[in-house]
Amino acid sequence: MEKQSFRSGYIAIIGRPNVGKSTMMNRIIGQKIAITSNKPQTTRSRIQTVYTDERGQMIFLDTPGINKAKNKLGDYMLNTAVSTIQDADVILWIVELSEYIGAGEQYILEELKKTDLPVILAINKTDSKGTEEIVNSINLYKDAYDFAEIVPVSARCGTNMDELISVLFSYLPEGPMYFDEDTLTDQPMKQIAAEIIREKSLHCLDNEVPHGIAVVIERYHERSRSVKTMDPSGTGYREPIVDIDASIICEKDSHKGIVIGKGGSMLKKIGSAARFEIEKLTGCQVNLKIWVKVKKDWRDSDTQLKNLGYDRKG
User: Which domains does the chain have, with CATH numbers?
Assistant: First the structure.
């Protein structure tokens, strides 16, 4: 029997905000790397994750939702999403099942016409829809663009995800293993911790406050401590601990009070949820301390954006 060729390459995940891009990426690699929320602007930077099996290796480039920019942070996010397409071998465009193609999707269609890369369309959130609705949505998009493949899926439930993975592999070129087979992401844990804290803030806070916050990890220190056991021999072990000092940055003094909450209740809620998630990922005890700082209108300041890691030229 002829040995199957090893395929590898980069897949840009694009789509409008809230269509399930990060949920889909997390589902494919089997672990949470990108944060998820039902609020727009959840993913702000390009996040690189890796899926490897006997068929090959897929490097996913998760991008910010493509949307009309309202400030300089929005400009950065749009530029990041569009430029990522140029670095990919395959484009995975995720849309929600719909009866029409909206203005946001029309904008993406125009961007896709500028590339000759194969585009796989994943129609997401099909778990609560009937067959007729799914078929109608497929035909709608089939008439709008010459897609390499169209695959209906549910990232939340995992429906048809194996089919999507097979389709993606079939359009990748033969290539080497770029990352070790155990690698899931090239993101440092320090950055993942910051994103987790921001995710918990998004989940806990309402209205416009989440859009105007960023998270900075001031200190990330791994250490261990001796733990004695009840063993009569007196032997013990070293327990790993991670110390994290983080700052939540908001745009207004009034937002600072909301993030902290009455008697510090909101900040405690955010911290407790984030600590649990980080401990689950690291397998270590986490000592998390969070402060709240105000940097006025940071989303429209080139200097503040650069200081917070959002390089508009990126």
Answer: 7-170 (3.40.50.300), 189-307 (3.30.300.20)
